[in-house]
Amino acid sequence: MNTVFYLTATIAVLATAMVIFSRNAVHALLYLIISLLATAIIFYLLGAPFAAALEVIVYAGAIMVLMVFVIMMLNQGDAAVQQESQWLQPKSWFGPAVLAAVLLLQLILLLDSEAAANTQGAHAVGAREVGIALFSRYVLAVELASMLLMAGLVGAFHLARGKHTKSAERDHAI
């Protein structure tokens, strides 16, 4: 189990570093998904399967869809079309695909009966305990996180709208 943990942690750190250093927003988003999936596997290894499921459903699922919508909303016309054709090159998907394949292999090994028996010693946290904790002790943190996400979305919308109105004014002036 230690080997799986360290390999997963290494993948999480590498993917997070690639998020920071990627110049392309879509590539950074792919690496962020890999990082969140690795974090979910670490939660599972530590005996929190419900937290792992929440990590996949909420972060790697819902919030990443929101980020894709923001990237689409900030579409920049013909330059974006040329960039999208470059994104479809196999070399762009190689890094995230390799990291995702390693995580998938680890998950298959973990779900094997022998590996699952090793994680049974940890105390499993259920949905009830998580719900009570989120809406009692951590309610302020949950609300602040939701407000921060909403502020980011509204800010991105205003930035995109300002860009489109300036280009429309420039086109009408000519």
Mean of all residue-level pLDDT scores: 77
CATH architecture of the largest domain: Up-down Bundle
Helix-strand category:
mainly alpha
- What is the N-to-C succession of helices and strands? HHHHHHHH
The tally of beta strands, per DSSP, is 0
The CATH class assignment of the largest domain is Mainly Alpha
Radius of gyration over all CA atoms, rounded = 20 Å
The outline comes out as: flat
Strand content bin:
under 5%
Low-confidence stretches: none
Number of domains: 2
Instruction: Summarize the amount of helix as a percent range.
Output: over 70%
Number of alpha- plus pi-helical segments: 8
Measured distance between first and last alpha carbons: 66 Å
Summarize the biggest pleated sheet. none
Keywords:
2 domains; 8 helices; mainly alpha; single chain; 174 residues; Four Helix Bundle (Hemerythrin (Met), subunit A)
Commentary on this structure:
The protein is an all-alpha fold and 174 residues long. The chain has two domains: 2-123, NADH-ubiquinone/plastoquinone oxidoreductase chain 6, subunit NuoJ (Four Helix Bundle (Hemerythrin (Met), subunit A)); 138-174. It has eight helices and no strands. It has helices at residues 2-21, 25-45, 49-73, 78-87, 90-111, 113-118, 127-134, 139-173. The chain is flat and about 70 Å long. The mean pLDDT is 77.
